């Protein structure tokens, strides 16, 4: 693939600032990150169609979806904080995260790359850039970032990671370490490196954060073991999954793991909306379930139907896309 080294990336945000319930003043905000050609950490992207964020594993250009006004407002605030103190690590991180939340993953990658230049030993910069490399299908680059992040967190104290979209309870459920292991596991999974993926998810589960962590990692641990043909070990890996658990966010993963245990029938889960992020996780989990249980035709039909949705940045969508591209 031809690689491009951009000098400048922009986030074009059309903000609908309400003056009344009927009239809106459209204000265009240009958020710009410059990446000098001589900069050794300058970001390289695969070439994509003009206006696209990525090219799918099946060769289709992928464009940002529309997002609500609140996300744009949050981005403007994050940009203002960054402009006030561009050397502040948290300002860089939130500027990058908020940029990604409106769908401009390529600009977010440039922002996190700036963060890496300023803080080369801060694992959080690699953690967040790696996430967005997954979004734009740059899986090898994602693996590189997460392997670096894993090295940087060795021997360090774990810290809770603030959520960009907090749950109603306002409880943060993940940490820097857990997110690094989770996304490292996902990156390996997308390269079909099942054992490495399994090991990374096991490391994340061993952190023992909460029940949400147990079911989210348990889902991928089970799938990796099934992909490796270790069916008995896969079933045994679900021993820590119970019907009654304190699940705050990851109900989809909980339901999938209960399906793997035979407690919930698969036909109940096939009715979910894959356009919803939680539904996307279930859609792939069910399709994958059919795949390694010998119902290949049904599995691929579900994945192909999944490709018709808007959820192209969801992890389940990306995994299904990868499976379809190499079948």
Describe this structure in words.
- It is a single chain.
- With 327 residues, the protein is mainly α.
- The protein folds into three domains: 155 residues, Tetratricopeptide repeat domain (Serine Threonine Protein Phosphatase 5, Tetratricopeptide repeat, Alpha Horseshoe), CATH 1.25.40; 92 residues, Serine Threonine Protein Phosphatase 5, Tetratricopeptide repeat, CATH 1.25.40; 63 residues.
- It has a two-stranded antiparallel sheet.
- Helix 6 runs antiparallel to helix 7.
- The N terminus is likely disordered.
Architecture of the largest domain in CATH?
Answer: Alpha Horseshoe
Per CATH, what is the topology of the largest domain? Answer: Serine Threonine Protein Phosphatase 5, Tetratricopeptide repeat
Q: Terminal Cα separation, in Å?
A: 21 Å
Strand order of the largest sheet: 1-4
CATH class of the largest domain: Mainly Alpha
* Strand content range: 5-15%
What would a concise description of this structure say?
A hairpin with a 5-residue loop joins strand 5 and strand 6 (61-62). The protein has 14 helices and six strands. It has helices spanning 69-84, 89-101, 105-118, 123-135, 139-153, 176-190, 194-206, 211-227, 231-236, 251-260, 266-269, 277-291, 296-306, 315-326; strands spanning 3-4, 8-18, 24-34, 45-46, 54-55, 61-62.
